[in-house]
Specification:
Layout: E1 3-7, H1 11-23, E2 28-33, E3 44-47, E4 50-53, E5 59-60, H2 64-73, E6 79-81, E7 86-89, E8 95-96, E9 106-109, H3 115-121, E10 126-128, E11 132-138, E12 141-146, E13 151-155, E14 157-160, H4 164-173, H5 178-188, E15 193-203, E16 213-216, E17 223-228, H6 229-232, E18 242-248, H7 250-255, H8 261-276, E19 283-296, H9 302-306, E20 313-315, H10 318-321, H11 326-343
Helix pairs in contact: 1-3, 1-11, 4-5
The protein binds flavin-adenine dinucleotide.
Flavin-adenine dinucleotide binds next to helix 1, strand 2, strand 5, helix 4 and strand 15.
Length: about 350
């Protein structure tokens, strides 16, 4: 009987796990996740009676396969199309309607985008709060070790899905053919990631402009995305309040990375209210999340990474696509999962 370990319970790892479980239920499959949650960057937080997505904001489904997964295989009444448009703004903070011809349909779960991770996982065995630090090749099998060097599992095949720099760090600590290891690390290097600080802001007044989010079109504003979470679903905030998520541009995220929350809010507040062109009332609370590895800027060398398959090492994630998109990460996970099943004889 084959055993398979997947490192990372983001959507790529969970989509791969789903394919393996569907096609080869006899495989002993374990997913290891360093955090408490499922979904990785597809993440939701609950605070002060509010629900907000502090990583990925919306799911796009431009291809038939993604639509099949979302609307049929994982059909869920909580999945809703966002009814309002995304507007744009420029460096001076001037809002405009944007080009409706470029508008894409966007989907989200009413009670938080992280529901996607839970739906993809189903009853897959996920060992949470275990960070895999290193792998060791032992004959034809792999041993998985945590930060303390403790053996946490063994597998015939290991699929790595953390963002490329984190995957690279695991390989650098691992013990196997040093020539192959260096080739894999080099192949991952082109997938560098932009940082992103995401700030949630709860305001004392409910306001409902004609847009649900605005995106900076000329990439010259410190804010790249300003979303109204209560437009995704009105119950995401108390009825008389507004709930915003502001995502900072890469340069601002880097410059303000270590800034205390109060100072960050003092910088951001005036920029946000200027964009709203409305009075959102008093700021009631704020929350922040720093994503060191938010969105990839380039793609890893997939052909070189595929050489490791003969050694039972597999890779999936948005670093293989070079574009930070949920549907692309799912597609990467599904494709790798299918190839892994074929290699295991399924
Ligand atoms: C702020 C932000 C906004 C975004 N907006 C959108 C959007 O609106 N629409 C969209 O389509 N995409 C968006 N994205 C991109 C999208 O979220 C990602 O492309 C996608 O979720 C990547 O999935 P993944 O499974 O490849 O990686 P991840 O989600 O990063 O999953 C990797 C998992 O591995 C775990 N892990 C890491 N190291 C270890 C270890 N050593 N041991 C065990 N586990 C480990 C991590 O905790 C994580 O759960 C956004 C991303 C960010 C950060």
């Amino acid at each position: 009987m084959s055993t398979c370990a997947i490192i990372g319970a983001g959507v790529a790892g969970l989509a791969a796990a789903r394919i393996v479980r569907q096609r080869m239920p006899e495989v002993v499959l374990t997913v290891y996740e360093k955090s408490r949650g499922l979904g990785g960057r597809v993440a939701t937080r609950r605070r002060n009676g509010c629900v907000f997505d502090h990583g990925a904001q919306v799911i796009k489904a431009p291809d038939e396969r993604t639509r099949q997964v979302l609307h049929h295989e994982l059909a869920d009444a909580a999945l809703v199309e966002i009814p309002a448009p995304v507007w744009t703004f420029d460096a001076a903070g001037r809002l405009s309607v944007g080009d409706p011809a470029l508008a894409e349909r966007q989907w989200v779960y009413r009670d938080g985008i992280s529901r996607l991770g839970k739906r993809l996982a189903g009853d897959t065995a996920v060992v949470r709060e275990v960070r895999i630090a290193a792998l060791t090749r032992q004959g034809t099998r792999w041993a998985l070790h945590d930060d303390a060097g403790t053996l946490v599992g063994e597998a015939d095949a290991v699929l790595l899905t953390p963002p490329a720099p984190q995957t690279s760090a695991i390989l650098a600590q691992s013990q196997f053919d040093p020539v192959l290891r260096e080739r894999l690390i080099t192949a991952l290097a082109p997938a560098q990631y932009r940082r992103c600080i995401s700030v949630a802001l709860g305001y004392a007044r409910r306001f409902d402009p004609p847009w649900y989010a605005a995106v900076n079109a000329d990439r010259q504003h410190p804010i790249v995305w300003l979303g109204l979470e209560h437009r995704k679903d009105p119950t995401r905030a108390p009825a008389d309040q507004s709930l915003l998520v502001a995502q900072l541009a890469p340069a601002a995220s880097l410059a303000w990375w270590d800034m205390p929350l109060a100072e960050l809010v003092a910088q951001l507040g005036p920029l946000v209210t200027a964009l709203l062109a409305d009075d959102p009332g008093a700021l009631l609370w704020a929350d922040r999340q720093g994503w060191r590895y938010a969105l990839p800027d380039g793609a890893a060398d997939a052909a070189t990474l595929a050489l490791a398959r003969d050694h039972g090492l597999w890779f999936a994630g948005d670093f293989l696509t070079g574009v930070g998109r949920i549907h692309r990460a799912i597609a990467s996970g599904e494709a790798t999962g299918a190839a892994l099943v074929a290699a295991l004889g399924g």
